[in-house]
Amino acid sequence: MTLNRSSREFGKRLAKYRKLAGLSAQQLSERVGGVLSRSVIANIESGRKSEVTVDQLLALAWVLDIPPAVLALPAETPFSRVQVVDGEDLSVMSVYDLATWFSNSESLGELIPGERDVKQAANSLAPIMLVILERFSIAIRTLGHLEELSGRGGKVSSKQVDDLREGFVDILKDMRRAGMVVELSPEDARWEVRLDAIPVDGGGQADGDD
Predict the structure, then answer these.
(1) CA distance to 28, 66, 72, 77, per residue, from 45 (Å)
(2) What is the value of pTM for the model shown?
């Protein structure tokens, strides 16, 4: 069985999604703010260069409007095997398992049988922090939805606002418990002010509630 590294065919994946986005290599370079020149992009796509930084990967995925994992992983060959760490048998994973791990759907312990010689603190804490981040992102989007609904003249119930307020408070508490730095940006810190500004309907079912 031939084992690949996740960087193999990275250039082909980049070229594929760049073309699907209707961008030339020069246009892509300009849109990522010059962190990758046109010639470097050409070298990546031709396979002459395979390494990119985390910042570059995120910038490319942002501009192409695709999940970073789709660039980082060979999703086009889901049943192939990828060697994550040289010389470590347990690090050989199928692409579909690798994608599941990458997206935080499962821990490595659930995906790969066998003992791993690492402390479990990081294994336990990292998924918790990602879940908390996802909860905050969902709460912010829900707040925007309620503002949009109210702006269109729809009904927003006091329960919807109170539940969301309680959710924000719980999330921030969980962030502190997880040792995360709770220093909200000026925009994110306005969540309570934005909630208070939403007119609530005193009775009846709110729009969007089933």
Answers:
(1) 12, 17, 14, 18
(2) 0.66
